[in-house]
Amino acid sequence: MVEKRLNNNIVFRKLKIALNLKDEDIIEIMKLAEFQISKHELSAIFRHPSQKQYRACNDQFLRYFLTGLQKKHIGEDTPKGHEKN
Question: Can you give the C-alpha Rg of the chain in angstroms?
Fold first, then answer.
């Protein structure tokens, strides 16, 4: 499905699908960024906006996810300019 307008929830969902991540994988990635989230909180982000339990994915949450993803794949001790390709 092609959306006319993207928001953080859609971007996050597309990243989850593209990287073939399960909820447990995302929770571990968030821990790498020193951010705790429960499985219930995570599922609220992937719900449809019309559902009562829906939670908007704010910029900071997406930033934590991207930071954790970077730490997982590149590592936190790698000097700038020497990242793995």
Answer: 14
CA–CA dist 9, 41 (Å, integer): 13
**How far apart, in whole angstroms, are the C-alpha atoms of residue 81 and residue 65?**
22
State the Cα–Cα distance between residues 82 and 11, nearest whole angstrom: 28
Residue 4 has pLDDT above 70, yes or no: yes
Dist CA 66 CA 49 (whole Å): 23
**Confidence (pTM):** 0.80
How far apart CA 65 and CA 1 sit, in angstroms, is 23
Instruction: Give the integer Cα–Cα distance in Å for 27 and 31.
Output: 6
Q: List pLDDT tens digits, range 37-60.
A: 999 999 999 999 999 999 999 999
